[in-house]
Design a protein that fits this description.
With about 280 residues, the protein is α/β, with parallel strands linked by helices. Helix content is about 35%, strand content about 15%. An 8-stranded parallel β-sheet has the order 1-10-9-8-5-4-3-2. Helix 7 runs parallel beside helix 8 and helix 8 packs across helix 9.
């Protein structure tokens, strides 16, 4: 392994190569490459554990609250009729590669305020068949009293959150408040164990000339998130993908949040968020 990352924190798998955030050929915004090829590459590189975390279907009714680009919505996640094939794919891959690598199959679930019950019902349905699941925030209320995607494109971000682009502290605080609500929500016995890319809101920070600091009120919300995670014995996804986004160029979460997580005792698990072999190699080789 040639990639070395400057990271602060309590590594849940210290001394072992793991990737806790991976997508498959079923992801509609992915490359379509067979995830088996990625698994074989990981085995060659000596990985101990991989977590397949495909995007869970968005809840029924969410489309009526969504105001953004149709393609962003249509490609955000797999459909409900793909859940069974995805789980079958995971079982097949575990059977084929399980003697060579620890392979977990789960979902990356969106926290969407107002749709908590639907999310819990989904987790109740798939929980018995999954291992590691992630909870992430990809959508946030914006203009027109609707939800917009925070990581689809710079143009979409500007359309959805334009009124707050000159009020970065307010915009970021709204996002972290949403994350806090998500981690405080009880989704039942299959509540996701790990929180995905905690500060995804910064994906276009260089495009919009956002500063890489937080005001005291936002810091307090971040601290509440981390204190909640520590109390719940949950972990953070230290997501490499942001480093390779041209307008982010920083890991999720930032070094500031990593330091706070370390001080509070919140562990992490590395994740590349790869949607194909090339991205996986970029992250790790």
């Amino acid at each position: 392994m040639s990639k070395q990352y400057s990271i602060v924190g309590h590594n849940q798998y210290e001394g072992q190569l793991v990737d806790g955030h991976l997508h498959t050929e079923l992801c509609p915004h992915g490359t379509g490459e067979k995830v088996a090829l990625l698994i074989e590459k990981a085995i060659d590189l000596g990985f101990y554990k991989l977590c397949l975390t495909e995007h869970a279907p968005l809840p029924n009714g969410f489309v009526r609250r969504y105001k953004g680009d149709k393609e962003a919505y249509d490609t955000a996640s797999i459909r409900m009729d793909q859940v069974e094939p995805y789980l079958a794919l995971g079982t097949e891959l575990q059977r084929e590669y399980g003697q060579h690598i620890n392979l977990s199959v789960g979902f990356e679930v969106d926290y969407l305020p107002g749709f908590e019950e639907a999310t819990r019902e989904f987790l109740d349905l798939v929980g018995p068949y999954t291992g590691d699941n992630l909870l992430s925030v990809h959508f946030m209320p914006g203009v027109d009293d609707g939800f917009w995607c925070v990581d689809y494109s710079e143009a979409e971000f500007q359309k959805g959150f334009g009124p707050w682009l000159t009020k970065q502290d307010v915009l970021y605080r709204r996002y972290f408040q949403l994350v806090l609500e998500g981690v405080q929500t009880d989704f039942g016995p299959h509540t996701p164990v790990r929180i995905g890319h905690l500060d995804l809101i910064k994906k276009y920070q260089h495009h919009f000339n956002f500063k890489n600091t937080y005001d005291s009120a936002t810091q307090q919300v971040i601290r509440q998130i981390l204190e909640t995670l520590r109390f719940q014995n949950r972990t953070l996804d230290y997501n490499i993908a942001g480093l390779f986004k041209s307008n982010c160029r920083e890991m999720y979460p930032s070094s500031f949040i990593q330091g706070m997580a370390y001080a509070l005792g919140v562990p992490y698990m590395m994740g590349s968020d790869s949607h194909g072999v090339s991205a996986f190699e970029t992250a790790w080789v």
